[in-house]
TrEMBL record:
Domain EAL intervals: 397-647
Record-linked Gene3D superfamilies: 3.30.70.270, EAL domain
Pfam families the UniProt entry points to: EAL (PF00563), GGDEF (PF00990)
Source organism superkingdom: Bacteria
Name this polypeptide is given: Diguanylate cyclase
CDD domains: EAL, GGDEF
Keyword Transmembrane helix: yes
InterPro entries linked to this entry: Biofilm_reg_signaling, EAL_dom, EAL_sf, GGDEF_dom, Nucleotide_cyclase, Rev_trsase/Diguanyl_cyclase
UniProt feature coiled coil, ranges: none
Keywords: Membrane, Transmembrane, Transmembrane helix
Amino acid sequence: MSWSIVKQSMRAARRVVLLAFTGASLIVGTLVVERLVFQHLYAAAAQKVVRAEELTGQILLLDERLTMSANMAAGTGEERWITRYEANISPMDEAINAATELAPSDVAARFDAETRVANDLLVELERQSFALVREGTLSQARALLDGQAYAEQKSILAAGTARFTASLVTAMEANLASVRMHAIVLVGLLTIGGFGLLWFLLTRSLTRSEAAFVQAERHIHDLAMHDALTDLANRRGFTGALDTAVAEARTSGRTLTLLTLDLDRFKPINDLYGHGAGDAVLREVAARLTRLVPAGGTAARLGGDEFAVLLTQTAIEDVSGVSRRIADALHEPIRSATLPNPVQIGVSIGIASHPSDAADATTLLTHADLALYRAKNEGRGSIREFEPGMVLETRERGAIEIEVGRAIADGQIVPHFQPLVDLRTQQVIGFEVLARWPHPERGMIGPDVFIPIAQRAGLITDLTLSILRQACQVAARWSVPLPIALNIAPEQLQDRWLPEKLLGVLAEQGFPAGRLEIEITENALVADFETARRVIASLKNQGVRIALDDFGSGCSSLSHLSQLPIDKIKIDRSFVKSITTHPQSATIVSAIIGLSRSLSMTTIAEGIEEPALVDHLLTLGCDLGQGFLFSRPLCAQDTGILVQNLADVCGEPDGRATDNDRGLRLYA
C-alpha cells in the first residue's frame, strides 16, 4: 500500500508540474503571438501617423507654392511662374487624395465638402489671373488675386486644411492607441484565460489527488488498526478501543472486563509444519473468537500468539462462562489444508475488570497480563482472575531480574558439580555442572528460579559462559582431569556463534575441549534443526562431546539421532524413577538403551535415588547413572575434596584410559 501511495504522489506531482509547464507555455505563447501579430499592426499604425504628418506638411507646402507662384505670375507677368504653378497642381491633388484616403470617412467627407471646393475655386481664380497675365493686364490679375473672393476661399482652404490635417493626425494617433489597447486587452484575456484554465486544471488535479490520498489514508489507518493476518484489531487499534471504552465506562459507571489470551502448544506447530500452518491456526483462532465474543465486545490479536477480548456489555458473573467457552473452543482440534493432520492447541487466559481491578486502560491491561502470567505458570489451559497480590509478585520478580543480571555479572551464580557414575564399576567418570545461586539474604536459589529469568532477560548466554568459566577454573585444579558436562538452553543452540563463544572461554582458561561435554535437549533441535546441526558439528570438530539430555520427553525424531554426532543419551528421570513400578517405563528405558547401543552411544540414567534402580538399570544394560543415591550437587570446594579423596583411595588412572576407565571409585 505504501508503494501505491508513493506512485499516486508521483503521478499527482507530475500532473501539477505538467499543468504548470502548460500554463507557462500558454502565457509565453500569448506573448509571442502578441509580438508576431501586433508588431505589424503597431508598425502600420505608426506609419500612418507619420504619413498623416507628412501629407499635412506637404499640403501646406504645396498650397504656399501655388499661392506664391500665382502672385509672382501676377506681379511679374513671367510665364515661368505659371509653369511652376501648373507643376505643383498635380502633387497637390495627389497629396489631397492620399490624405482623403488615409483619413476616416467622416473627416474625408467634410474635407471634400469644404476644403476641396475652396481649393478648386482658388485654382479657378488663379488660372483666371494667369489668363490676364498672358493678355498683359497684370493690374487686373493682381486685383483678382487681391480680391475678396480670393481671400475668402483662401481662408476657407487654410481653415479646412488645418482642420483636416489635425483631424487626420488625431485619427491616426487614435488608431495607434486602439491597436495598442486591443493588444493589451488580447494579451490580458489570453493571460487571464491561461491562468484560469491552469487554475481549473490544477484544482481538479489536486482535488482528485486529495481524494486518492484521503482514501489511501483511510486504508492506512485501517491497516494500522487491524491485524493483516486475522483481520482482528491489532495492539494499536485495541489499545485505542480500550482507552475509549474505559473513558465511557468511567462516565456511565459501566463495568468492563478484559481477557488476555496466550495460546498453548502453538510454537511446535510453526516448528514442525512451518509458518504457513501457524498462520492458518491463527486465522482459525481469530474466527472462533469472533464467533464467541458477545455483542459489544472486541477481539484483537496483540502479536504472535497473544490475543485479547474486551467485554463491554457482559455481566461480571457471566465472564467466567465466556472465558470457559473460549477455552473449550480453542481446545478443539484445528483442521487446515496446510496441516497434514488436525492439531490441538489450548489457551491460558488472564482476566481483569474495570473499575474493581484497575481505574485506567493501561493498568487494566497490565493486571490482565499479570493474571495471564499466573495462569501460564499454573499449567496449560488455566484461567486466572487478577488478584492484588500479583502486583507484589511482579515487583519481587522484577527485583529478582535486576539481581540476576547483577549476580551474573559479578559471578555470584556459581557452579555445583554432581558426579556421573559408571553403574558397573561405581567409578566417578565425570561431573555435570549445575548452576546455583547462594543468595546472601534468600539462601540457596535453584536454577528453576533464575534460569527462566535469565532467559526472559536475554542473559542466558552470559550465565552459561560465566558458569563455564568458573567450572573450568575449578576443574583445572582437580588432581584428576575428569570431564565436565554443561547444559545449554534450547534457544542458545540457534546461535550460530555459540561454538566460538564456548571455545573462546576454553581457550581463555586453557581448558582442553576434550574435557567438555555439552548437553542439549530434544526440543532444542526442533526450532531450527539445520542451525543446531551446524553448531553441534562445530563443537564436535573441536573435540567437545555432545549428550542428548532428557531423551524421551521431547519431540525429536529418530532421524535427528542419525544425523547428529551425539555421544551420549541421557534417559529422562521420569522414566527412570518408575521402571520398577511401571512396566511401560521399563519397556521405554529398555528401548532407549537398545537404540543407543545400535547407534554406538552411551546411555546415562538421571534421577537415581534408590539402590534397586541401579540393579534394574544394569539388567537393562544402562552404562552410567546420576542422582542423589550417589551424591547431591557439590560446591567447588567439596567437589575438589571428593576428587582428592577418591584419588588417594584409588590412585590416579592412566591418562590414556577411556571414559569408563578414567574414573574414581565412589565407594572404595
